[in-house]
Amino acid sequence: MKTLLLASALLLAPTLAHAQQATEGTRAKAEREVAVAVIVRQLAQDSGQNVLVDSSLATVKAPALAKPTTAANLEEQLDALLRKLPEGAAWAKLYLPKPQEGKRYAADNLSRYALAQASLFGGKVGTSKPGMVEVMGRLMTQAEANPLIQKLDLQAYYILSNPQKPMMAFGAPGAAGGAPFGGANITDLLMKQLGVTDLKNIPSGNYKVQLPGPDGVPMNADVMVNNDGGNTSIAVRMSKSTTIPPQ
Predict the structure, then answer these.
(1) Left, alpha or beta for 77 (phi > 0: left; psi -120 to 50: alpha)?
(2) pTM metric for this prediction
(3) Least confident of 41-50, 110-119, 181-190
(4) Signal sequence: where (predicted)?
């Protein structure tokens, strides 16, 4: 009996060690992962291009990209990022007029614009064959597109989205994912939770807000805030839950 117990202990020890190593490896991997919104912000900064991610992907975690990004390899980097994201994730390149002075395009609106174009023109908007670019749903060579781009003063915008996942646009009651309440309610609750009175004073980060759902089941709002010098953008994803994980 003693021999059997000793053998069992010897067999169990490597198993426990392996499990501990696996847990530590999983924890280390999680610590290396960041929100896609953070990766995209770095891509835009390093490339000098307009790169945005909508709320279907903004809070998804992914490993940071290994290679440095430049304007020349931006699309290659976007492809590399897609390989780390859930199935259905995609990016599109859109040529659009500059937004009004002092304003910026909302990522969720760009995604809806791309989907609307796809419905109108067919196919996947924002994708093009090698050596070709797309302007207003038309494929053409860069040489053909340049005069049109210059005449209309268009800029390139890269948008990452996952059409298979619902967008939860901040501030749009009942839109893009069927939120039964308005974003303004979430803002008020978040500011009260943080003890601030101005949206501009909410620090960048990920937050949890809970509010009653329409069927009496509490709803959790995963709120991702990006505060860029007082220009605050917020992405929200809703889920039913009876508890909120601790901060």
Answers:
(1) alpha
(2) 0.60
(3) 181-190
(4) 1-19
Q: By the 8 A CB rule, do 225 and 202 touch?
A: yes
Average pLDDT, the chain: 75
Residue pair 194/202 in contact (Cβ under 8 Å)? The answer is yes
Token pair in block for residue 92? 């599109």
- CA nearest to 184, candidates 227, 226, 221, 228: 221
**What is d(CA 153, CA 236) in angstroms, rounded to the nearest whole number?**
33
Residue 155: per-residue pLDDT: 93
Kindly write down the DSSP assignment for every residue of 78-92, as one continuous string. HHHHHTTS-TT-EEE
Other Cβ atoms within 10 Å of 167 Cβ, number: 25
- Strands 205-212, 132-135: parallel, antiparallel or unpaired by DSSP? unpaired
Lowest-pLDDT range of 18-32, 35-49, 130-144:
18-32
Pick 195 or 30 by higher pLDDT: 195
Buried b (16+ CB within 10 A) or exposed e, 130-139: eeebbbeeee
Q: Which whole-number Å values give the CA distances from 220 to 179, 237, 240, in the listed order?
A: 11, 8, 6
Which segments within the chain are labelled E, that is strand? 33-35, 50-53, 61-63, 90-97, 132-135, 138-141, 154-161, 205-212, 218-228, 231-240
Check the CA dihedral 199-202-207-210 and report its sign: negative
Largest CA distance in the chain: 88
Distance CA(131)–CA(109), nearest Å, equals: 27
